[in-house]
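Researcher: Let's try something more involved. This one mixes different molecule types, so please make sure each is placed in the same coordinate frame as the others.
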Amino acid sequence: MTKTKTRVAIGLSGGVDSSVAAYLLKQQGFEVIGLHLKLHEGIDPLHARACCSLDSSLDARLVAHQLDIPFYVINLKEDFKRYVIDPFIQDYQSGRTPNPCVKCNKFIKFGAFLDKAKQLGCDKLATGHYATIYEHDGRFRIRRAKDSAKDQTYMLYGLSQEQLSHIIMPLGDVQNKATVRRIAQELDLSVAGAKDSQDICFVPDDDHIAFLKDELGSFEAGDFVLDGEIIGQHPGLEHFTIGQRKGLGISYQEPLYVTKLEPLGRKVHLGRAEAVWGRRLAGSKLNLIYEDLSPGDERDITAKIRYAQSAVPARLTVGPEGTFTVDFKEAVRAISPGQSVVFYRRDDLFGGGIIDQKLE
Amino acid sequence: MKTIYMDYSATTPMKPEVIEAVSDAFKHHYGNASSIHHIGQDAKVLLQQAREQVARLIGAEPREIFFTAGGTESDNWAIEIALETKPGKHIITTSVEHHAILHPLEALEKKGYRVTYLPVDEYGMVSPEQVAAAIEDDTILISVMYINNEIGSINPVEEIAEVAAQHGILFHTDGVQALGNIPIDMSANQISMMSMSAHKIYGPKGVGALYIRKGVRTVPLIYGGAQERKVRAGTENIPGIIGFAKAAELARENLTAHIERLSGLRDKLRDGIMNQIPQAKYNGHPTKRHPGNVHVCFKYIEGESLLLLLDMKGICASSGSACTSGSLDPSHVLMNIGLTHEIAHGSLRLTLGDFTTEDDVATVIEEIGPIVQRLREMSPLTE
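Model: All components are placed in one shared frame. Result:
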């Protein structure tokens, strides 16, 4: 058998980004195979635009047909439930605010899906993420996308060197989303006008409360606590996130904010505006992309504690067994346990971990 | 890259003679068979000739053939006939039927009917004795598939039909995989109803038939006009029915040669795979079997990956039923013949047909070994 072109699998979601990424790979001379991930049942057929619905797999199939590349649907529903949906529900039940996309990238897209791509003889797996993977001093790094509005590195900090060695992200070098749309239009791709995907693909209408209620049946009510005193009843921890002010369903003489969710006793702690701000946090499950640090090591970094936010200056101190603390130069708002804190050095993704608690 | 199609149990390509007959009908015979004028009369004649052809393939009388839109409709209709014409609340079937039988019966259970799903042996078969033992006072229907669509085993439906007849119970068989693949003679058995589909015998999709033995009382599933002796409404799909008839005619003429040639290729393919690949299990009955069905489970691999890699080599196969693909759960057929999840996941169905060549079989035997080996090397399950 003669040696042929490098075979690359591209995850085709049915959206514009991955479709254009597939096109760019083909232009670069790779043998491209389109794979669509089936991750969950469309809960309601009316939510036809949810990312894993029948429609999206049909869209992906049409794009593959237009680009003249082979196309297959890969079913990873069991893995997705185990590694993403179940922990998502458990996190909310225990008063934490999860980032399911982080887990999906680590265990599904660049875990089980990458394994599948390798089985199919693909040397590389490509996705439509806006980020650039490059090699420096023998290690792989992830650079933030040129289009900072579309930068998705926040969701990618959990990846290992082994995973990165097999990943291509062709959109990192594209100027911005408008460019991607223009390419799609020029190619007359059927998905050129498709809407951007929603926040969490398995939660219809971005209504995570309705989703959780569906899954859990009901929530356990509990007390609102202010300065150690019970000042009212709440319908369940799952309704609240740290820093929330609106929709508390409680009246008080001054504005109150959620400051802490306590699973034991189902307490929602409230506080005044200043109580929502903090300068230190403790976390765990630290993953660093290209540098190995030991307990006690410190690094100046910039950090962000949620996806849609700019990174701010901070200092990272590594603790034992994947724990760490972060000290921010200036106070940040709503440090939320369960969310990821993600670190950068210049334009490179440095690493990240899960926030366990705000420290005083 | 040459395409090697080995998924004839999912569907077959139409034979050139069939395409010609269908095209001719589209071009020249556009009449509505219910119309009084000569164009309508022309369609009516063709319809009757088609009925005769299909009847001849199974040794039936033309008036026992009722055209439908395919196997699934025929299955649903057979159940409806039992429900509406027989008093009683109990139905007997097997645990390995096609979903066109299982799903309507599951829906009936919710409406208060009792359904006995007979367990099957290691080959996916049931015995007449099992059926006899399951009969209750108010059993209204026994439905047992003729040939299993996944693993190809042939049930003793003629004996089961006899048991049913002795008890005065309607007996239906899903004959979709059997038609044109084994000799069937309705004049010599006691089957009450049999479902058939054209696209499994080199005919067009969207057309099939239900055989209903004369004397069996019928009611419509689909109500409307007076077509098909008032029991199957809707303007007849004349081109489709003509295609079905041509396919049936060819099947009847070639039946013996077809079975002989396919069985030879099938056994060659089976041996080529089984002699080469260790830790593989051949499923289905060794001899009482669809002439074109090879079904194997390979330990330690996922059937899905195997299918995709075969497809990349131009080889079209399936893991089981095309109607259940997209689901990762191991097939209900494989679970019911007693396979573990672990081995059922690595299933491969290769179904051969009249366009399959010796070369095709040789190529598949050559390609499959390295693919299975590669997948096993990468599998976390390999010991």
